[in-house]
Amino acid sequence: MAALAQVATQTAGSGQARAEESENVPRVPGVSTIFSGFNAGASFFGVHNSAVGWYEVVSPAVSFTFSPHFSADASTPIYLHHYVEEPPVRPGTVGAMVLDADDAGDTVIGFHVSFKPDNFLYTATASLTAPTGNRAVGFGAGQPTFDFDNHLQRYTGQAAFLLDLGIGDSSTPIDNLVTQNFTSVGKLAHFQAGAMVWIFRRYWVQSVAYEELPFGSQTVYTVVNPERGSGSGPGATQTNVITSSGASEDNGFITSAGIPFTPHLTLLGYYNHSLRWHQDTVSIGMSYVLRGTPLARRLSMIDRALREAAGLNGK
To answer: Which of 88, 148, 259, 284 falls 20 to 30 Å from 270 in CA-CA distance?
Structure first.
């Protein structure tokens, strides 16, 4: 979901909306690499999932922009209030829901290379995860994992068309916005396509269709038993070893929106419908960044190119 956090900008003399020349920190929309050097932020979301109910998650993140083309970032989700299931007392029964507070997920570290020819933005991302999450409740893979993603945006007027193609060995780094009720370990490909529209030049709405397609053996760590995670009621927390068409496959639609209140503070919301699991996830939250992008006047792509050539980027 790297495209989710792209912020609209104004091109000189054309009136067309563009995205910032940046890859944003995962899970913290609004942290932009338009500024050289260090940046940091945090997001807070209240989330309702049809399988596990309400929970809250905060995601601090840091980033460093080395040049107009190269940047890196890291983030860790922290679940402040999340219900998980105890193992069943005996086979064939359902475990009780219990509160799991202040538990972390896996840390995602991303390295990005971006190019911006004409009306396109192309970003290649290599992501690694550190096993900081609790895999017993589905928050972590229990081992380092990786992912490679190719992201393309094509701008036209007040809109952009989005395409993502990637491959990795875990579901953790793929979707930085929607938190699933499980973490998978095993080879999988992922795809995403959709569009983004800017309203009043800086408010945005995005809608995408996605597919996560495993191949080969998969190990899945769950909060909700995948075989019963269809919104009809949770099952027992357990580890499942499955093959390609098992619980780590997911597909559906995500619609999201953002309203920047200040250069540092943005209101965010999203709705995710999983076609495979018949689950719905709704969230609303805020993100705060230390070095925010000004809202009153955004530099055009030409202006920024001239500033970069003069060594004034981020000043």
So the answer is: 148
Contact in structure between 201 and 17 (CB atoms under 8 Å): yes
Q: ∠ at Cα 254 (140, 234), nearest 5°?
A: 50
Domain map (residue ranges) of the chain: 2-309
One-letter identity of residue 224: V
Sorted by sequence, the CB contacts under 8 Å of residue 254 that are 6+ apart come out as 1, 177, 178, 194, 206, 207, 208, 210, 270, 271, 272
The segments of the chain whose pLDDT lies below 50 read: 1-25, 226-245, 296-300, 302-303, 306, 310-311, 313-315
Class of domain 2-309: mainly beta
pTM, two decimals, is 0.76
CA 78-82-86 angle, to 5 degrees, is 120
* Spatial CA neighbour of 295 closest among 206, 207, 198, 205: 198
Which pLDDT belongs to residue 232? Answer: 38
- pLDDT tens digits along 14-38: 333 343 433 344 556 666 666 788 9
Contact 172, 188 (CB under 8 A): no
Question: What per-residue confidence (pLDDT) applies to 286?
Answer: 92
